[in-house]
Amino acid sequence: MSDIAYTSILPEGWPRPRGFTQAVAATATRTIRVSGQVGQKPGASVEAGLDIGGQWQLALANVITVVRAAGGDIRNIVLLRAYVTDVAEFREAGPAIGAAWQATLGRHFPAMTLVGVTGLIDPNAKVEIEAEAVLP
Predict the structure, then answer these.
(1) Which residue in 131, 127, 114, 113 sits closest to 22, CA to CA?
(2) Beta-bridge mates of residue 18
(3) Half-sphere exposure for 110 (CA within 13 Å, toward CB)
(4) Confidence (pLDDT) at 14
(5) Residue 76, class by beta-carbon neighbours within 10 Å (0-12 exposed, 13-18 middle, 19+ buried)?
(6) C-alpha closest to that of 112 among 9, 35, 21
(7) pLDDT tens digit sequence for 73-118
């Protein structure tokens, strides 16, 4: 695993967020920007009926696969941007999302943004995740 100078940023007096970091400071010589990944196996479409937790896990696994292909690893990921088609469904699926996070990223919590959207390119997709990683 590649190590980078990575520091979580938490403004004074702010409560520590659960499941993400407000900001990160990272020093690196190479930045990787990963295109949005949906919850599908490579070369396939998103499986109809796959719940948001399952899609979240596949999308994160795809992000990690791309970062590793670029020479990085999980700890190099400094930002995730997730788009979901149903914010209420995302909230209700908290335990499944948490399990998917644990299975893929463990206790690594980069900065993150969650955006509700009306649709994604694959009509079965409920989530799409893009990332930024920095490598030494």
Answers:
(1) 113
(2) none
(3) 26
(4) 81
(5) buried
(6) 21
(7) 999 999 999 999 999 999 999 999 999 999 999 999 999 999 999 9
Specify the amino acid at residue 95. P
The residue whose two tokens read 């670029």 is 70
Name the token pair of 76. Answer: 């190099």
Task: Give the pairing of strands 77-84 and 111-116.
Answer: parallel
Q: Which of 54, 12, 14, 26 is nearest to 131 (CA)?
A: 26
- Backbone angle region of 101, left / alpha / beta, with phi > 0 → left and psi within -120 to 50 → alpha: alpha
> Given the structure tokens 């292909």, which residue do they identify?
69
| Letter string b/e over residues 112-127, b meaning 16 or more CB atoms within 10 A of that residue's CB | beeeeeeebeeeebbb
In the block, tokens 């989530």 appear at: 127
Q: What are the structure tokens assigned to 11, written together?
A: 């403004």
Q: Looking up tokens 């900065």, which residue turns up?
A: 111
Give the C-alpha separation, 38 to 36, whole Å: 7
Per-residue pLDDT, averaged over 13-33, amounts to: 79
Q: Which two tokens stand for residue 90?
A: 């995302």
